[in-house]
Specification:
The protein is mainly beta. The chain is built from one helix and nine strands; from the N terminus they run H-E-E-E-E-E-E-E-E-E.
């Protein structure tokens, strides 16, 4: 996956250089919007997972390669995560809320399918900034509860993750565009051997 990212970055650099020479069309901007973050959590216990709704904020550069094709790298702060519930040892119920903050760097190629509308796709690498977790244990046998708030679990989280993006956008004006994107997680976000967690992300914004 790292080789794929490097290959795409090299190809993109060549494409941008060609675009600057041929069309001289480039633009830069700021983007923000809503995150709907979900996760696939595989463990030995039956569990239920709920999404986390948050936000993203970043910047982009858009480089025209041709009349219909553009390359768009981005640098985006993204608040992600999920909540999980499961029962183990018969009577102990665990409720967790995981909050993950990343700097995401997507490398996207865009294709204009009609006037003002485009589709986009490309790989993304994310670098973890922080990882916090609220943990609640309830033992139904003894009717006791233990809470651990704002635990730092960055040490149990992979420093970088890879995903692949698919999206669609609409140019509202020359300076404003709406965009919806789905980031499909490819690598695990955790280092723990007993579980597997892959984060997926839906983003909608301007």
């Amino acid at each position: 996956m790292k080789k794929l990212i490097l290959s795409v970055a090299l190809l993109a650099t060549m494409a941008v250089s060609q675009a600057q020479e041929q069309t001289k069309k480039k633009s830069f901007g700021i983007k923000s919007g809503l995150n709907y973050s979900t996760a696939t959590v595989k463990r030995e216990f039956e569990n239920s997972v709920s999404p986390r709704t948050s936000f993203y904020l970043g910047m982009y550069g858009n480089f025209k390669i041709s009349n219909k094709v553009a390359f768009q790298p981005e640098l985006v702060y993204s608040a992600q995560g999920y909540s999980e519930k499961y029962t183990f040892l018969t009577s102990i119920n665990r409720d967790t809320d995981v909050r993950l903050n990343y700097i995401n760097v997507p490398f996207l190629f865009q294709y204009q399918i009609m006037d003002k509308m485009y589709v986009e796709t490309g790989p993304q690498i994310g670098f973890v900034l922080s990882a916090k977790m609220d943990d609640t244990y309830f033992d139904s046998a003894t009717n006791t509860t233990e809470e651990f708030i704002n635990n730092d679990v960055k040490g149990e989280t992979n420093s970088s993750i890879f995903s692949y993006s698919f999206g669609v956008g609409y140019d509202i004006s020359s300076k404003l565009r709406a965009n919806a994107r789905y980031n499909l997680g490819i690598t695990q976000i955790d280092k723990l051997y007993e579980i597997s967690v892959i984060n997926n992300l839906l983003q909608v914004g301007l």
